[in-house]
C-alpha cells in the first residue's frame, strides 16, 4: 500500500513539473507574439527599423511637400550649379563707374524730390527739390564753360557750318547767299521754271511777281501753263498737254516746277505762295537730293 502511494505521489510531482514547464513555455511564447510585446533589438533589427522609418518618411515628404514658385526649397537654393549660375550672371553685368554712380544718384534723388514736391508742395519739399536742381545747374554750367574753353584752345573742334554768334551768323549767311547764287545761275543754263496757274486764282496773281523776279535775278526761263486758258492776266500761257495733269491730278494752283532743258526731269519746288529765298532753298534741295549739281561745276 505504501509503495503504491509513493509511486502515485512521484507521478503527480512529475506531472505538475511538466505542467509548470509547459505553462512557462506558453507564457514566454505569448509574450513574444503579443500585440504589445517587445522585439529583440539586436543590430540587424535596429538597421531594419531605421531603414523602414526613413523610407516611409521620404515617401510622405515627397507626396505632401508643396511645389510651386511660392515654395522655398532650401535644398534647391544651395545647389552648387545654381549658385554658380547666379555668380556668372553677376559677372556679366557691367559695374557702373564712380562718376556714373554719382550722376545716377543725383538724378534719382532730384526726380524723387521733384515728385514729392509735386505731390505735396510744401515749402520744405520745394526747397529740397530746388537745391538738388541747383546742383545739377552748377555742374551743367561748369561743363559748358569747359566745352567753350576746349573749343577755343583746339580749333579743330570748331564746326564752321554752325554759326557760334550773331556776327559769325551774319558772315555765314552772306557766304551762303553767295554760294547759292552761283549754284542757281549755273542751274539756269540747263534748267527752267514752269508756273501752273488758272483763271480766277488770286494766289496765282500774287505769286507771279515773286516768281518773275526770281527768274530774272538768276536767269531762269519762265513758262506759264494754264489748265484751260491761253492767257492769264494778260500773260501768254501754254495749255497743259497732260504732263502737269499727271503730276498734279487735283489741279491745285499755283504750283512751280523745275524742269531740265530736255523736258525729261521735272520736280515741283513750290505749292502755294512762298518767298524768293524759299524758292531758292527748295530748288537747291531738290538738286542736291537727286545729285544733279556738283560743287566743282560752280566753284570759281
Automatic annotation (TrEMBL):
SUPFAM superfamilies: Thioredoxin-like. This is Conjugal pilus assembly protein TraF. It comes from Rickettsia tamurae subsp. buchneri.
Amino acid at each position: 500500500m505504501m509503495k503504491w502511494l509513493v509511486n502515485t505521489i512521484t507521478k503527480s510531482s512529475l506531472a505538475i513539473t511538466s505542467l509548470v514547464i509547459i505553462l512557462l513555455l506558453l507564457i514566454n511564447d505569448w509574450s513574444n507574439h503579443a500585440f504589445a510585446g517587445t522585439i529583440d533589438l539586436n543590430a540587424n533589427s535596429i538597421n531594419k527599423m531605421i531603414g523602414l522609418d526613413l523610407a516611409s518618411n521620404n515617401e510622405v515628404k515627397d507626396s505632401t511637400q508643396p511645389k510651386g514658385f511660392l515654395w522655398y526649397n532650401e535644398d534647391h537654393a544651395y545647389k552648387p550649379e545654381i549658385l554658380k549660375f547666379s555668380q556668372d550672371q553677376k559677372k556679366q553685368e557691367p559695374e557702373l563707374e564712380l562718376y556714373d554712380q554719382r550722376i545716377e544718384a543725383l538724378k534719382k534723388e532730384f526726380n524723387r524730390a521733384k515728385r514729392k514736391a509735386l505731390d505735396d508742395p510744401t515749402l520744405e519739399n520745394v526747397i529740397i527739390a530746388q537745391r538738388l536742381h541747383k546742383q545739377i545747374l552748377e555742374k551743367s554750367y561748369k561743363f559748358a564753360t569747359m566745352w567753350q574753353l576746349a573749343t577755343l584752345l583746339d580749333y579743330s573742334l570748331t564746326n564752321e557750318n554752325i554759326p557760334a554768334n550773331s556776327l559769325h551768323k551774319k558772315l555765314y549767311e552772306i557766304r551762303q547767299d553767295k554760294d547759292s547764287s552761283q549754284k542757281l545761275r549755273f542751274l539756269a543754263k540747263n534748267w527752267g521754271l514752269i508756273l501752273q496757274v488758272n483763271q480766277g486764282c488770286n494766289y496765282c496773281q500774287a505769286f507771279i511777281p515773286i516768281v518773275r523776279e526770281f527768274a530774272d535775278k538768276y536767269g531762269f526761263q519762265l513758262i506759264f501753263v494754264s489748265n484751260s486758258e491761253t492767257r492769264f492776266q494778260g500773260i501768254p500761257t501754254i495749255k497743259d498737254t497732260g504732263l502737269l495733269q499727271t503730276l498734279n491730278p487735283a489741279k491745285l494752283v499755283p504750283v512751280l516746277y523745275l524742269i531740265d532743258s530736255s523736258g525729261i526731269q521735272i520736280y515741283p519746288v513750290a505749292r502755294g505762295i512762298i518767298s524768293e529765298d524759299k524758292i531758292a532753298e527748295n530748288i537747291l534741295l531738290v538738286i542736291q537730293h537727286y545729285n544733279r549739281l556738283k560743287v566743282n561745276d560752280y566753284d570759281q
